[in-house]
Protein backbone atom coordinates (compact mmCIF):
# COMPACT_ATOMS: atom_id res chain seq x y z
CA UNK A 1 0.00 0.00 0.00
CA UNK A 2 1.42 3.35 -1.05
CA UNK A 3 0.72 6.26 1.30
CA UNK A 4 1.26 9.88 0.35
CA UNK A 5 3.40 11.07 3.27
CA UNK A 6 3.33 14.62 1.97
CA UNK A 7 -0.47 14.66 2.10
CA UNK A 8 -0.52 13.15 5.60
CA UNK A 9 2.05 15.72 6.76
CA UNK A 10 -0.09 18.49 5.26
CA UNK A 11 -3.15 17.22 7.16
CA UNK A 12 -1.09 17.26 10.35
CA UNK A 13 0.20 20.76 9.55
CA UNK A 14 3.79 19.50 9.36
CA UNK A 15 6.40 20.79 6.99
CA UNK A 16 8.70 17.96 5.90
CA UNK A 17 11.73 18.08 3.69
CA UNK A 18 12.05 15.57 0.84
CA UNK A 19 14.64 13.72 2.91
CA UNK A 20 12.25 13.46 5.87
CA UNK A 21 9.47 12.26 3.58
CA UNK A 22 11.70 9.49 2.25
CA UNK A 23 12.52 8.41 5.81
CA UNK A 24 8.89 8.48 7.01
CA UNK A 25 7.39 6.85 3.89
CA UNK A 26 8.42 3.25 4.69
CA UNK A 27 7.77 3.78 8.42
CA UNK A 28 4.20 4.92 7.81
CA UNK A 29 3.58 2.07 5.36
CA UNK A 30 4.84 -0.43 7.97
CA UNK A 31 2.51 1.04 10.58
CA UNK A 32 -0.48 0.71 8.24
CA UNK A 33 0.50 -2.89 7.41
CA UNK A 34 0.67 -3.70 11.12
CA UNK A 35 -2.78 -2.18 11.75
CA UNK A 36 -4.16 -4.23 8.86
CA UNK A 37 -2.59 -7.35 10.38
CA UNK A 38 -4.19 -6.59 13.76
CA UNK A 39 -7.58 -6.16 12.10
CA UNK A 40 -7.38 -9.81 10.96
CA UNK A 41 -7.63 -11.03 14.57
CA UNK A 42 -10.94 -12.69 15.41
CA UNK A 43 -12.45 -10.76 18.30
CA UNK A 44 -15.88 -12.38 18.16
CA UNK A 45 -17.20 -12.71 21.71
CA UNK A 46 -14.45 -10.55 23.24
CA UNK A 47 -15.89 -7.79 25.40
CA UNK A 48 -14.53 -4.30 24.75
CA UNK A 49 -12.50 -2.93 27.63
CA UNK A 50 -10.74 0.25 28.63
CA UNK A 51 -7.76 -1.51 30.23
CA UNK A 52 -5.93 -4.76 29.64
CA UNK A 53 -6.16 -5.62 33.31
CA UNK A 54 -9.13 -5.74 35.64
CA UNK A 55 -9.33 -2.67 37.81
CA UNK A 56 -10.35 -3.04 41.43
CA UNK A 57 -11.25 -0.24 43.79
CA UNK A 58 -8.81 -0.14 46.66
CA UNK A 59 -11.04 2.02 48.85
CA UNK A 60 -11.48 1.04 52.43
CA UNK A 61 -14.82 0.86 54.16
CA UNK A 62 -16.00 4.31 55.29
CA UNK A 63 -16.01 4.08 59.06
CA UNK A 64 -16.88 6.93 61.40
CA UNK A 65 -14.27 7.41 64.10
CA UNK A 66 -13.17 10.25 66.36
CA UNK A 67 -11.03 12.96 64.78
CA UNK A 68 -8.28 15.05 66.34
CA UNK A 69 -9.20 17.47 69.06
CA UNK A 70 -8.98 21.11 67.91
CA UNK A 71 -6.17 21.84 70.37
CA UNK A 72 -4.15 18.85 69.14
CA UNK A 73 -4.62 19.84 65.50
CA UNK A 74 -3.57 23.44 66.16
CA UNK A 75 -0.79 22.63 68.67
CA UNK A 76 2.04 23.38 66.20
CA UNK A 77 0.31 26.11 64.19
CA UNK A 78 2.66 29.08 63.80
CA UNK A 79 -0.32 31.43 64.13
CA UNK A 80 -3.98 30.94 64.81
CA UNK A 81 -7.20 32.84 65.24
CA UNK A 82 -9.55 31.09 67.62
CA UNK A 83 -9.98 27.54 66.32
CA UNK A 84 -8.47 28.22 62.86
CA UNK A 85 -5.02 28.40 61.27
CA UNK A 86 -3.91 31.94 60.39
CA UNK A 87 -2.13 31.98 57.05
CA UNK A 88 -0.34 34.82 55.28
CA UNK A 89 -2.12 36.55 52.40
CA UNK A 90 -0.73 35.16 49.13
CA UNK A 91 -3.14 36.66 46.59
CA UNK A 92 -2.92 40.33 45.71
CA UNK A 93 -6.12 42.17 46.50
CA UNK A 94 -7.33 39.49 48.92
CA UNK A 95 -8.55 40.63 52.30
CA UNK A 96 -6.62 39.44 55.33
Oligomer: single chain
The strand order across the widest sheet is 1-2
Name the beta content range: under 5%
Q: For the report, how would you describe the main beta sheet?
A: 2 strands, antiparallel
Task: Tell me the Rg in angstroms.
Answer: 30 Å
Number of beta-strand segments:
2
Low-confidence stretches: none
Question: How would you describe what is shown here?
Answer:
By secondary structure, the chain is mainly alpha-helical. The chain has a domain at 5-38. The protein has three helices and two strands, in the order αααββ. Strands 1-2 form a two-stranded antiparallel ribbon. The longest helix has 21 residues, at 18-38.
Short précis:
The protein is built from 3 helices and 2 strands, in the order H-H-H-E-E. It is mainly alpha-helical. The chain has a domain at 5-38.
List the helices and strands and how they pair.
Layout: H1 5-11, H2 18-38, H3 70-73, E1 80-81, E2 84-85
Antiparallel strand pairs: 1-2
Distinctive features:
mainly alpha, two-stranded antiparallel sheet, elongated
Amino acid sequence: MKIDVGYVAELARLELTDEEKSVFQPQLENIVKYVEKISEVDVEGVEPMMHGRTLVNAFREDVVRPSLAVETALANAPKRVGDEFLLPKIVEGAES
